Amino acid sequence: MALPTQDHPGTKILHTDKFTRGKGKFHPIRFLPPEELPDEQYPFVFTTGRLLEHWHTGSMTRRCVVLDERVPHGALELHPSDARKLGVGPGDTVRVASRRGEIELPANVTRRTAPGTVFLAFHFHEHAANLLTIAALDPIAKIPEYKACAVRVSKGNGPS
Predict the structure, then answer these.
(1) What is the pTM of this model?
(2) 3-state DSSP helix/strand/coil percent for the chain, to nearest 5?
(3) Which end of the chain is more exposed for a tag (fewer CB within 10 A), N or C?
């Protein structure tokens, strides 16, 4: 919205009485499944996200001693029932592989994830989540589909 005059001081609070175009403009959309769904070879849904202690890539928060000591590395979150099937315990090294790459990192066995879904925060360059993600574009927003792809998980070779 343009200012009424060049010397106008601005408006402290916008939309105090009403919104410019009503309360919102909604459009119905058709559900589109992720580009890549789990199958026999890659049976888990892999999703990425953030942790409370870090943000973005961790380029700033990983330099903060207090925050980096609280969460110093990435860990693959997987449901206890999936961990049991894989023979994986808390802290064990797991290998996560997609059609684009693979990484090894510690396991975090937790009920925060649903069975069949694994989660990894993307703040850790040493456990780079986006080596696994798919770059398929959303047909409307034209943004990469980094939030869902198919992976397989196995016990890794690293220290347990």
Answers:
(1) 0.77
(2) 15, 25, 60
(3) N
